[in-house]
Amino acid sequence: MTDPLTDSLDAETRQRVEDLIKEEEGDANQYKGSLGIALTLVAVLMSLFHLYAAYAIVPAQILRATHVTMVLVFIFLTFPIAARFKNRLMLWDIGFALLAVSTLIYAMLGGDDFADRNTYPLTTDVLFGSILILLILEALRRTNGWVLLTVTVSFLLYALFGNYLPAPWTHKGYELARLVGFMYMTLEGVFGTAIDVSSTLIILFTIFGAFLQFSGAGKFFIDFSFSVMGGKTSNVGKTVVLSSFLLGGPSGSGVATTVTVGAVAHNMLAKAGYEKNAAGGLLAAGGLGAIISPPVLGAAAFLIAEFLKISYLDVLLMATVPTFLFYLGLYVMVTIDARKYNMSEQKIESIESAWTLTKKYWFHFFSLISIVVFMLMGFSPGMSVFWATAASLVTSFLRSDSAMISYDTFQGKAPFWASLYNSKFTQALSGGFTQVLSIAATCAGAGLIVGVVVLTGLGLKFSAIVLDYADGSLFLTALFTGLVVWIVGLAVPVTASYIICAVIAAPAMIKLGVPDYAAHMFIFYYAVLSEVSPPTALSPFAAAAICKGDPYKTTFQSWKYVAPAILVPFIFVLDPAGVALLLMGNVKALAAANWSEIAWIVFTASAGIVALAGGLQSWFILKTSLIERWVLIASGVALTYPSAVGDIGGFAGLGMVVVLQWLRQSRQQAN
User: Fold this and answer.
1) Is 378 left (phi over 0), alpha (psi -120 to 50) or beta?
2) What integer pLDDT is reported at residue 630 of this predicted model?
3) What whole-number distance in Å separates Cα of residue 301 and Cα of residue 436?
4) What pLDDT is recorded for position 1?
5) Angle, CA 301 vertex, CA 300 and CA 306 arms, to 5°
6) CA gyration radius, the chain
7) Which of 276, 410, 513, 631 has a 20 to 30 A CA-CA distance from 205?
């Protein structure tokens, strides 16, 4: 089966990109023959099971346990224990898979008494629970590597031996039986919030993304973006920004967006005059925006809704303005690029008009809004993505080249079952389940971490330590929290870093009066930004492979492009008025809010982003002097802080630079 993400790359580059993805997400076996067919069909059945669970009612214990078990089974059968066993199904892999199934069967046969005795578990309970925990740890190692495994084991050791640590880290300590009982026999540990979200939302959105991927929505969004922007070399950067937004919104995957856009745009960026590392940096920055862009966002966004017990629609609402500011920063940066490097107005190639493309593929736009539309109609997030997936399947048949099942299958021109198996429909269902394996393993491991935090009270201890170091200062508390999220994010994926920091760091800001939703969005935003820092910088590394650049120089360039948006999270935690950027956190509060205040804060933040972009690029209308550059940076910082003094100073500085540069440009044109 082909991969639409990398099909348009040359063989060498495609291999490098695939190797990077395997390094980050695990190097899965590629089985052929009857074993490959069997695993594909089981993956299809698991996707159908989760779609059924969205429509029907499946008890939480059964759904979560089945989800974890089948994820473990697939990981052991498809991810080798070591590289030298690649593409070979070994007996121990089968043994691990059978052990995973046995833990599910044991839990299901336990009935109501099973959960009731979690405080004083039987010896067999501890045995099967210990087996499950060890299997999860091994699954983490196979899919995410040693770092996340080490972090998870450290938390477990803290639960068992924390009583030997000095204050303020000490706790009473927990015996193995108590720890295993809590993790295995309740809905608080392994089967807690993270797995709940993984089994009910993340996998559904992954399936939805796979349907869009295989129906050709990605190619349409890129073609449409080039057409709207005129197809000129000077506008290639803007095209990357627009296509990253259109593709990233329903995708929610940074690396998928980076690779899909990069596969088409990298040659055009080179023709436009972008240096290869800068081109890769722009592609990675655009892909990063996918993780914070409605309607899907990254997997961690679903956890925000679950942790705070709010509607996912409220999370989408909160992400709207930060997403706008993120892409505004990118747009201004590439606009300055075109002036700074004097990019030509050369036409790249003849492309179809936006109107022609829209007439042909208008139904792909529905994917951008369908989930939100269904939620506004009153459907739950799970049901919304279910119907959005169904709608994308039905509308794909409006054209033969986008049909998820070939017209020939229904017209008798091809063998029915063989054609169905090789169809985009089967590939999407299979990919929807297999693509969630790494995230689901992360969520299971995160369940262990959250369980330890709940048992030991580590979150309150950590918050007390942060508040003590910050001496009650909200600014220092936010700064320390951002640094903690950053450091954790350097080692583990976005989902894991959000979960860890949400339970240990968010309480400190909440204690100082920051609304809980603002604190969680702050942590989510910085967990996403940490994704462009080594060693977890998959998007920049993939972009570097595509553009033939240096991975670390590309990562540095990606930082240049996202830098204007770095201050945005501080706006909505340091001042009560700043939550206007989150549109007050929910629909009801927004309806009663002061809209003029919201508009003003969004306007000043936007002006601040523009000023920061100019200062960081050392270019605005013209090349800036040293003084102009620092005035722009200072003005950008002042404007992004919601205060009257900051706004006055910021607009004064920005206005001064604009006037000086306009006068200088007028003199140059006169001469």
Assistant:
1) left
2) 94
3) 15
4) 42
5) 95
6) 25
7) 410
Measured CA to CA, the distance from residue 394 to residue 408 in angstroms comes to: 16
Pairwise CA distance, residues 436 & 572, whole Å: 32
Of 571, 574, 354, 37, whose CA–CA distance to 583 is shortest?
571
Q: Which of 605, 607, 606, 577 is nearest to 593 (CA)?
A: 577
Q: Is 619 helix (H, G, I), strand (E, B) or coil?
A: strand
Beta bridge partners of 347: 232
Dihedral sign, Cα of residue 571, residue 575, residue 580, residue 583: positive
* DSSP category for residue 298: -
Exposure class string for 415-427: b at 16+ Cβ within 10 A, else e: eeeebebbbbbbb
E strand or H helix that includes residue 382: helix 381-396
| Three-state secondary-structure class, residue 232 | strand
Quote the CA–CA distance of 578 and 572 in Å, as a whole number: 4
- Rounded to a whole number of angstroms, the distance between the first and last alpha carbons of the chain is 62
At residue 540, does pLDDT exceed 90?
A: no
**Residue keyed to tokens 């797995």:** 195
Residue 623: DSSP 8-state:
B
Retrieve residue 29's tokens: 């076996």
pLDDT at 26: 54
- Cα angle: 134, vertex 139, 141; to 5 degrees: 95
Peptide bond into 59 cis (omega under 30): no
CA 410 to mean position of chain CA atoms: 37
Q: Give the number of other Cβ atoms within 10 Å of residue 627's Cβ.
A: 11
**Of all residues in the chain, what percent carry a pLDDT higher than 70?**
92
Q: Are 400 and 215 in contact (CB under 8 A)?
A: no
What is the phi/psi pair of residue 353, to 5°? -70, 155
State the Cα–Cα distance between residues 138 and 660, nearest whole angstrom: 62
Q: What's the angle, vertex CA 480, arms to CA 512 and CA 633, rounded to 5?
A: 100
**What are the tokens at 568?**
């945005």
Long-range contacts of 416-422 (CB under 8 A, 24+ apart): 421/37, 421/40, 422/1
Q: How far, CA to CA in Å, does 525 sit from each of 235, 473, 531?
A: 28, 21, 10
Give dist(CA 357, CA 351) in Å, integer. Answer: 10
Residues 6+ apart with CB under 8 A from 671: none
| Cα 215 to Cα 207: distance, rounded to the nearest angstrom | 12
- Point out the least confidently predicted range of 200-204, 375-379, 640-644: 640-644
Distances from the Cα of 546 to the Cαs of 235, 364, 375, 394, 565, in angstroms?
20, 26, 37, 34, 25
For the cut 80, the answer to whether the pLDDT of residue 200 exceeds it is yes
pTM for this one? 0.82
Distances (CA, A) of 65 to 97, 118, 132, 195, 266: 14, 16, 11, 9, 44
